[in-house]
Structures are given as C-alpha cells and as structure tokens.
Design goal:
Keywords: Cell outer membrane, Membrane, Receptor, TonB box, Transmembrane, Transmembrane beta strand, Transport. GO terms for molecular function: siderophore uptake transmembrane transporter activity. It is a multi-pass membrane protein. The chain is mostly beta strands. The chain has six helices and 43 strands. The strands form seven sheets. The chain has a 22-stranded antiparallel beta barrel. Strands 11-16-17-14-15 form a five-stranded mixed β-sheet.
C-alpha cells in the first residue's frame, strides 16, 4: 500500500505542478486607442503565436510561465518587440502600435474621386499619415512638406516669408491644394492660406504628381495635394499638442470631440501660433523670420442617416497678423515711406461638406464656399484684395461588371477684386464643367482608367482635358507598374500667385493679355514590395516623368532690373526627371523613408534654352526613426538636401551669385510615450545652422530706393529687391513640446 501511495505521488504531483506552471496570456493590440485586427503575433524562440481578432485580442492558452519576447507586426504599422513576464493564470499585455511613416495600402480618393485601395488605384498616389509629420513638428501644413520627395515648400519673399509648394520642379501655381477633395486653397489664398492650415486637423495627406485636371479642373497642372481632415468619430475625446522653440515661437493645438446625438459627432479644433521676437542674425537690419499672430478655429460635424448615408459639414475661420521688415518698424509705420515693413492682415472663412443622397444609387453632393480678405502694405504700397469662391459638385458612381463609372458635374464661381492696375473692376468667373471616367478592370493583373473633362471658362472659353492611365501588377500584387498620360490647363492671376509682383520696388508690366496655359504629361511609375522572412519590409517606388507646356506664363526678372515682365512664352517649356523612394521597416524598431529626385525644368525661346528660376536639379529627403522597445522612447532624424538653383538677379551688374549653393536642413527629435496617452518630445531644428547669405535682400539699407540713382551709393545700378531667396533665414533652434490624447 505504501508503495502505491508513493507511486501516486510521483505521478500526480508533477502533473499538478505542471498545471500550476502554465496559464493564459491575453495580448491586446491597439493604435491611437482603436483595436487592430489581424495583427500577427509571435513568441520568439517558440512556435506559439497567431493573429488578433476583430477586437484586437489574441489569447494564448496553456503557455508556460516565464519571460517572453513578444513580436507584433502588421502591414502599415511599425513592428513592436515587447518583453513580458507571464506568471499568473491569466496575464494581460497591451501593445500600442504606431503607424508607418507611409501607409502601405491605405484607402485613397484623390486619384479617382472614389474610395479605392492604394494598390488597386491606376493612378500613382503618395499617402502620408500624421506619424510622418510628427517626426518633425511644424506649425503649418506648408512647412510640413519639406521632407517629402519631389515636393518643396518655396519661400518667395525674404521679408514676409510667404511661399508656395513646388511639385517635381513646377512652381506653386501649378499645384492644386484641396481640403477633403474641394478647391479651398487657390488664387489669393495660395500665398497666405497654406500657413493657416494646422497639422492637427489632418488625417492624411494624398499627393498626385502630374496633371489631374480631368477630375479637378484648372490649376491641377503639376499635381495636387489633398488634405483629408479627421472624422470626429475616429478622434480622441480630448487631444492637445503644444510646442515652443528657442526663438520664441509657440504653437498650440486643442481638439475636442462631442457626441451630439444618435449617430452624430462633432470635432472642435483650435490652433494658435504666436511669434513676436524680432531677430536679425545676418545683420541686414531686416527680420530673419516674419512675426506672426495667428488663430484658426475648426469645426467638423458628421451624422449617419438612413441606409448608412452620411452627411458631413465643416467650417474654419483664420485670422493672421504678420509683419516683417526693418528691425525698428512699429505698427505706427504701417504704410509710411520712412521705415520699411510688410504688414499683412488676413481674414479667411471656409465651409465645406458632403451629402450622400438617400437613393439606391451612389450619388454624392459636395459643396464649399470661402472668403479671403487681405489688408496689406508692402512698404508704402497698399494691396487690398477680396476673393470669394463658391463650389458645388454632383457625382454619380456606378459599378457595372468590370467597369467603375464616375459621372460628375461641377460649378465654380470666383469673385476677385484688388486695388492694383491689373484690376480696373471686379473679376467674376463662372466655371461650369462635366467629366466622365471609366475605371475598367481587364483582369486581375491589368486595369485601364479613361477620363475626359470639359470646362467652360466665362473669360477664356471651352477647354477639354482627357487622360488615360494603365496599371499592371503581378498576381501577388508585390510588383506594380503604372503608366499615365494626361492634359492640364491653368488660368493665371499674377497678383494672387506671384508675391514678387507686389514686394520690392519693381514695376509690373504685362506685355500682352495672358492666355491659359496648357500641358501634356506622361508618367511611368514602378512599385515593388518586399517582405522578408523576419517580417522586415522594403518598398521601392520609382518614377520617370515628362511634361510639355504651351503658352507657359513666365515672369521675366532679367530684361530690366526695375521691372517684372509677364507674357506667354513664345516657345516651349519642359519639365522632366526621375524620382526614387525607398521605404524600409525592420521589426527591431528601425524605419527609414529615403528619397531622391533629379529634375530638369527648362524654357526655350528664340532658340535659347535656359533653366527655370528657383528650381533645383537634384534633391534628397530622409526620415529615419528608431524605437527603443518597451521603453517607448523613439528618435527621429529628418532632413533634406538641395542642389544649386538659378536665382533672379537684377541684371548683368548684379554681383551676387547666379546660383545657390548646395544646402541641407536637418532636424533631430526624441519622443517619450507614456501608456496614459501622454507624449513629451524635443529636439533641434536646422542642425547645420544653414542660412542664405546676408546680401539676399538687395540694397537692404535703401528699401525705398531713395539713393538708387546715386552712382557712389549704388555703383551696380540695383534696386531694393527681396525676391533673391531659396531657403529660410531661420537658423538653428531648439524645441520642446507635449502631446496628450484621451480616449473614452
């Protein structure tokens, strides 16, 4: 009997001990407070693992107690490695994933005006998430574009620091900026409206390089930037993001989500930017950075109706007071000819929305309206301008077999008035248009997109804009080839688009009545995706492009140092080049997005070929990040590199360099996250402390040209001019900030 008792003990005690040494490990995967389904989870050194369910949860039962390295990965997010000590019958682990700098297969709308997977789109679209922009925090959308390959924010004035956005070397007026697919940033607001859009409102940014006039009409000649705003239901209940720099800049974003009823949500956002610290490090007696006091108020409201039809309505108001000029300038000097200053008051309102009609067909009505008022002085030159734009668009989307038809009708009303010699009476433009698109899937590997648009401009007549896009992919969709051919057109308004026409002492001369510009573009894009056995990701995105212009409008700074002459080019203009992006992501926590572009933008007239002003031939960008595992500490290193640009000289006697030097703006940031939604971050901007030379402003000591005819004071026969600018004057500076997001 004793022997049997010993035998039972030898059998059951180890079993009991074994049973007590294993339990269940519950792993929850979230991102921005929302569960992540189908995330891949593995335990290093074992064959245990699986994928999360629709609630973002994976339960591993009968897992022996001990310490484990948990690997969590899913396409579109940075992989995470977390160490957990499993020592209870039910242990719990929560993993918070960060979005990749670029989304691998986002749903996009810009290329076809319908929601479609990025990989399925026949139009090449670059998509950037808020994670990308957080690596180098800036107070506005304009500045945030500095690390995107082929996209460059160009400062156009050394005094008031206004600018526009270049795509593939083409100037800002050729870039169409949309908010939720509607043309809210154009004309007068293309100069000052970009700095008034806070990053906190942006859900993602979609960029199409090349003409998109078939769907979006005039201005989308060089490409478009579509800013998709956040939807209230997918935002934190409370969110804040505030940072300050050692130069005295302060930027604050506050967001608040409210549930206003059954299936109804609203998002209220406030952005405030403040900088009132005149600095003159280059010693030219002009402010290196424009002083600004800007507030932006935003409200977006969404409501689900019957049959899941959605109504969204948004509004924004911006007020900005900015000035730059001589260091001794005060508001009392505004408009005088004693102390030079450029003072701009901007008031802007916007409203826009989408209504899905309550019918069986997919019919959407989009609408927007905005008003922009500018009260400004450039020295003693007054520029008073008012612009009002109304826009309405009706689209019908109908799948038929392998065809996706989109039929649309649009109408745009523009009122513009200013006090310049070019506007003797208010300009009113009516622009009705219609377009048809067929997105045809030939088979699982081939797709073709055909589109045509007709617009009737009340001032310039009818304009056709056709396009064709072809896409081929391998069966696993890891290799994609896209070919596009499209036509674009643009109607120019010099005083709203070219800031040089207002600033400085030059006279503006129109040699003829300007005709609409027209362009033809061809683009070849290749994408390859590689996922290694260790769940590392390598993305290759390469493009070759060519654009030919008719009636190109070119400002002539060189024929006469006292004038800027505008005329349609009697010749041809060409933009061509190649670009390459590498998107790398390792499960160890290291990620990198590196890009380079080689661009040749040239103008040929009377047999003479010359490079376009302020256009680089070579550029590079990078965004490199690393997360230190469970510590939730990350480091981001961002930057850009630009080759020489041809600069606008004031005639043959101007002794300043005709080309800019190679230059680079680099930044570094360290971020610490906490599990309660708090983030603190800080770093250094412009690590190399690069700034243009002190003589970038010609004759800064005589801004009113009082001694311009004095051969001793002015031996080179120059005039005061701040348009010789290719990079910001703001040098190295530190910054620190805090973010907080509360989900309920």
């Amino acid at each position: 009997m004793k022997h049997y008792l010993i035998l039972l003990i030898l059998i059951f005690v180890p079993c009991y001990i074994w049973a007590q040494s294993a339990g269940t490990l519950e792993i929850k995967v979230y991102s921005e407070g929302q569960p992540v389904e189908f995330a891949s989870i593995g335990i290093k050194g074992t064959n245990r693992g699986g994928t999360t369910n629709t609630k973002g949860i994976l339960r591993l039962t009968d897992l022996s107690y001990g310490s484990y390295d948990i690997l969590v990965s899913i396409m579109g997010f940075k992989s995470e490695k977390v160490t957990v000590v499993h020592q209870a019958s039910l242990s719990a682990l929560t993993v918070d994933l960060e979005e990749s700098a670029t989304a691998l297969d986002e749903v996009v709308v810009s290329g076809t005006m319908t929601e479609i997977s990025k990989m399925e789109s026949a139009v090449s679209i670059d998509v950037y998430s808020p994670k990308f922009f957080k690596a180098n925090p800036t107070p506005s959308v304009f500045e945030s574009m500095q690390n995107i390959n082929g996209v460059r924010p160009q400062i156009n004035c050394n005094v008031c620091n206004t600018g526009d956005i270049h795509i593939n070397g083409l100037e800002g007026p050729y870039t169409m900026v949309l908010i939720d697919g509607m043309p809210l940033v154009s004309g007068l607001s293309s100069v000052y409206g970009l700095t008034g859009i806070p990053q906190s409102l942006i859900e993602r940014v979609e960029i199409v390089k090349g003409p998109a006039s078939t769907l979006y009409g005039s201005e989308a000649v060089g490409g478009l930037i579509n800013l998709i705003t956040k939807t209230p239901e997918n935002t934190p209940t409370v969110s804040t993001d505030a940072f300050a720099t050692s130069w005295g800049e302060v930027n604050t974003d506050i967001g608040l989500k409210l549930n206003t009823g059954n299936k109804s949500h609203t998002l209220v956002g406030i952005n405030y930017f403040y900088y009132q610290n005149p600095i003159d490090n280059n010693g030219d007696n002009f402010t290196d950075l424009t002083l600004q006091n800007r507030i932006s108020l935003f409200n977006k409201w969404t409501m689900k109706r019957k049959n899941n039809r959605q109504l969204s309505l948004a509004g924004r108001y911006v007020y900005e007071d900015r000035w730059g000029g001589e260091m001794q300038w005060t508001p009392e000097d505004r408009g005088d000819d004693t102390v030079y200053g450029e003072s701009i008051y901007t008031k802007r309102w916007e409203t826009f929305g989408t209504y899905q009609l309550p019918v069986e067909e997919i019919i959407n009505f989009q609408f927007s309206a905005n008003g922009h008022k500018q009260d400004s002085y450039y020295g003693d030159l007054s520029f008073q301008a008012q612009q009002n734009i109304g826009f309405g668009q009706l689209t019908w989307h109908r799948p038929v077999g392998r065809h996706e038809f989109l039929l649309g009708a649009a109408y745009r009303y523009t009122y513009y008035n200013d006090n310049t010699v070019a506007t003797t009476s208010p300009s009113i433009t009516h622009l009705p248009g219609a377009y048809l698109q067929d997105d045809f899937r030939i088979d699982n590997q081939n797709k073709i997109l055909l589109g045509v648009r007709y617009d009737y401009n009340s001032l310039h007549g009818g304009i056709w804009s056709p396009r064709i896009n072809y896409k081929w992919n391998t069966t696993n969709k890891k290799n994609i080839l896209r070919l596009s051919l499209g036509n674009g057109y643009r109607v120019a308004n010099v005083f709203t688009e070219d800031h040089a026409a207002l600033t400085g002492a030059r006279d503006v001369v129109f040699e003829e009545e300007l005709k609409p510009e027209e362009s033809w573009n061809v683009n070849l894009n290749f994408v390859k995706k590689i996922i290694t056995n260790h769940q590392n990701y390598i993305g290759i995105d390469a493009s070759v492009f060519y654009t030919y212009f008719d009636n190109r409008i070119v400002p002539d700074y060189e024929s006469d140092p006292n004038e800027i002459r505008y005329a349609n080019l009697d010749g041809s203009a060409v933009s061509k080049g190649v670009s390459l992006n590498l998107d790398l992501s390792w499960h160890s926590g290291l990620s990198a997005l590196v890009g380079t572009s080689i661009i040749d933008v040239s103008i040929e007239e009377d047999g003479v070929k010359r490079r376009q002003l302020l256009t680089e031939k070579v550029s590079g960008v990078w965004n490199i990040g690393y997360t230190f595992g469970a510590s939730l500490i990350s480091i981001d290193y961002t930057g850009n590199l630009y080759g020489p640009m041809r600069l606008p000289l004031l005639g043959p006697e101007d002794d300043r360099p005709a080309y800019s030097p190679w230059y680079s703006i680099q930044n570094i940031q360290i971020t610490k996250k906490f599990i309660n939604g708090l983030e603190i971050y800080g770093g250094i901007k412009n690590l190399l402390n690069f700034t243009p030379p002190a003589n970038s402003i010609a004759r800064a000591h005589d801004p009113f040209d009082e001694n311009v005819n004095d051969p001793i004071d002015n031996p080179n026969n120059l005039t005061f001019d701040p348009s010789y600018v290719y990079a910001p004057n703001q040098g190295i500076r530190g910054f620190a900030g805090v973010r907080y997001a509360l989900f309920k």
